[in-house]
Specification:
By secondary structure, this protein is of the alpha+beta class. Helix content is 26%, strand content 24%. It contains 7 helices and 6 strands. Strands 2-1-4-3 form a 4-stranded mixed sheet, with helices on both faces. A two-stranded antiparallel ribbon has the order 5-6. β3 and β4 form a beta hairpin.
Length: 196
């Protein structure tokens, strides 16, 4: 594979997904002896310089998933709240307006507060949905019931692993399979992950 932009999924030693990293970061982890094991497909073969003493050239094969020593168990608890931002929100809702059901580009979408802020609503995962700009404008400062605009899906807060999935841009099949195995059984993202 020659795509140097393909991200590598980094996990902790137990296999819990942590983050997406560039190949340069993966190389640093290998040479710092932080990689415990690898899985997934081979992505890239990196060649280094030639050793003056041995005359050998260093080579490193990078896989799509690498496990590193250490653990960040605190990230996976019930109290973890992923940062809320529009690009991730739009990916959570699959770029669909949750009022009209239309599929839109990110440029034509907005964040809508189900219970408007002016009515005491919060800016959090369980109170925001993706809405096209037209629907957001039509709803205004009203609740869906007041605006007669029922929601097509219930907003939810992603778990840490779901958040890692939502951060991925171009996810390979083996990475997708690995991530989906860590989703909660009730995850609404599970089906989308398996269809990709």
């Amino acid at each position: 594979m020659t795509n140097l932009q393909q991200l590598i999924l980094r996990t902790d030693i137990s296999g819990m997904p942590l983050e997406w990293i560039h190949f340069q970061t993966a190389v640093k982890l290998y040479y710092a002896k932080q990689v415990a094991y690898t899985c997934g497909s081979s992505l890239l073969e990196v060649h280094g310089g030639i050793n003056a003493r041995t005359g050998l050239r260093s080579e490193l094969v990078l896989n799509s998933i690498i496990a590193t020593y250490g653990s960040k168990q605190g990230l996976f608890g019930e109290s973890y709240v992923p940062p809320l931002n529009n690009p991730t929100l739009f990916r959570r809702d699959n770029h669909l307006c949750l009022y009209c059901g239309g599929h839109f580009s990110a440029h034509d979408l907005s964040r809508d507060h189900v219970i408007p802020i002016v009515k005491g609503g919060r800016d959090n995962w369980t109170n925001v949905v993706t809405a096209c700009k037209q629907c957001n404008s039509n709803k205004g400062g009203r609740t869906p019931e007041q605006a007669n605009m029922p929601l097509l899906a219930v907003p939810f807060q992603p778990t840490y692993v779901e958040y890692v999935f939502l951060q991925g841009r171009s996810i390979l099949a083996d990475q997708m399979e690995f991530l989906s195995a860590h989703f909660p059984r009730s995850s609404s993202l599970r089906q989308r992950c398996l269809q990709s």
